[in-house]
Specification:
The chain is mainly alpha-helical. About 60% of the residues lie in helices and about 5% in strands. It has a two-stranded antiparallel ribbon. β1 (about 90-95) and β2 (about 100-105) form a beta hairpin.
């Protein structure tokens, strides 16, 4: 890690952001996913599948829209990611409280698979902590939580730089 990276990580207020935040986050996400996938795969799952099983176990039975919201993903991505879990009978999609709604739940096979893969996920997490450093991982988690909180706040208020949020008035015909 170079000196500039260290100063930014340590919270130096003079470390102005450089580059595209979305690209930086995707780079990190890909590397972290590769690390976790390489270890969790020994249990026969991808990390995304392990995460889904864990969330369904914790929150289920749950409506697909609620699960997608809880996992910060869109409904089509959730549907695509659920398909292999349903095909393996680790997850069931059944009727909800009315004729139009559905509920997702984990099956007994899914619980078994999650227990098996949890050992590998834990091994991946401990290896990640050792490689990056527990202190930095803790700060990373806190920073991600803070950013997600701010992004949710922003979703509630119109963007003042957006034309959609601009008020029309004298001198502002939109």
């Amino acid at each position: 890690m170079n000196a500039q990276s260290r100063s930014i990580v340590s919270g130096d207020p003079h470390g102005a952001p450089r580059g595209c935040s979305a690209q930086k986050l995707r780079q990190l996400s890909r590397r972290v996913s590769q690390h976790f996938d390489s270890i969790v795969a020994t249990a026969g799952l991808k990390t995304t599948q392990y995460s889904l099983l864990s969330q369904i176990l914790a929150l289920g039975p749950i409506r697909p829209g609620d699960l997608a919201h809880a996992m910060e993903m869109d409904a089509s991505t959730l549907t695509r990611n659920l398909q292999p879990l349903v095909a393996q009978a680790w997850v069931a999609v059944g009727p909800g409280s009315d004729g139009r709604s559905r509920l997702i739940s984990i099956t007994a096979l899914g619980r078994e698979k999650r227990v098996q893969s949890q050992r590998e996920w834990k091994r991946a997490q401990l290896a990640f902590n050792a490689r990056v450093g527990e202190d930095l991982v803790g700060r990373l988690h806190a920073l991600i939580d803070e950013c997600l909180g701010r992004m949710h706040e922003d979703a509630q208020t119109p963007d003042p730089t957006s034309l959609h949020g601009a008020r029309r008035g004298p001198g502002n015909s939109g």
